[in-house]
Amino acid sequence: MARASSKKPRDLPPTDPMPARVDPCLATLVDKPPKGPDWAYEVKWDGYRIAVHIEPGRVRILTRGGYDWTERFPSIVDDARRLAVKTAILDGEAVVLDDKGRSDFGMLQRALGRLPSAVEAGAIVFYAFDLLYLDGRDLRRLPLRERRRLLEPLVACPEGAVRLSEEVQADGDEFFRVACAHGIEGIIAKHVEKPYRSGRGEWWQKITCKRRDSFVIVGFEPSTVPGHLGRLLLAARKDGELVYVGGCGTGWSNQLSRELRKLLEGMATKTPAVSLRRKGAVFVEPVLVAEVEYRAWTDDGKLRHASFKGIRQRADDAVVFEMADNIRSGFDDRIE
Fold first, then answer.
1. Would you tell me which CATH number, out of the four given (1.10.287.3510, 1.20.1250.20, 3.40.50.300, 2.40.50.140), belongs to the domain 211-329?
2. Is residue 317 pLDDT above 70, yes or no?
3. Selection from 283, 291, 297 nearest residue 317 by Cα
4. Which of 35, 62, 27 is nearest to 48 (CA)?
5. Per-residue buried b or exposed e for 87-116, using 16+ beta carbons within 10 Å of the residue's own CB
6. Quick check: pTM over 0.85?
7. Is there a smaller number of Cβ atoms within 10 Å at the N or the C end of the chain?
């Protein structure tokens, strides 16, 4: 019987061409953390999902949708160049941390220059949680525990723009409780024996403290305070069409209220994107997407207790919430 090779994947000759792009693995929303020794847990980061491609002479950063955002993350590019690899693909999340170490999507958008802010681009951090390719070897066929074993020494530095998303071996219910108590969006559970599979599946699961989705902004209601925003009018997709799902009137500062009002006034249209009549409403072109946190859905398909969390363009990797017939029973398939 032939003896199995003791060489590590990095010691073997390169045999796998480097993919130009990898469709990411996406987590399935569940109500409770899975249990068992084959599951590990991580914090659910609130930012942009990106892949860092390290190649000879260059670094590329691609969004989940395949857009090249390399120029938007100069600090991540600089740190990625210093990693002790020839070629690699790192999967992770670009975030900005608040003063308590929590990821803040609104701060990230400001650092990317979407709205005026004192937050600089250098504040953006990349938390790597998977390694898909390394020095000529495609690692996607390996179980997660092996991919993590190779990833951890590469990004072991706790400071800088490229960091390791820590994996926690703990009781899932307790970790979820602590995460919610600290104001974190939720947790991710991953099966350590599974290979990396593009698309959505049960091998990665997400458990959120509150529901959060992306909705198209189709209009707004002015505030009684001149120049301010009163309420955003939101829509989701249903059978390929936009459907009004209610409004959102909280979640912004006075400054942001003025900035959003000015931004939306520049997109005003006389033709609403949804079937809706509302006195005093200003309808806009459906080109911006709002990140919204909410508690539940009403029986008639409207958001309950919605709070604004951030804004993005439909041209990036934003995915708009898709309404389904079973939405009233709590259906929620947000793509992170």
1. 2.40.50.140
2. no
3. 291
4. 62
5. ebbbbbbbbbbeeeebbbbbbbbbbbebbe
6. no
7. N
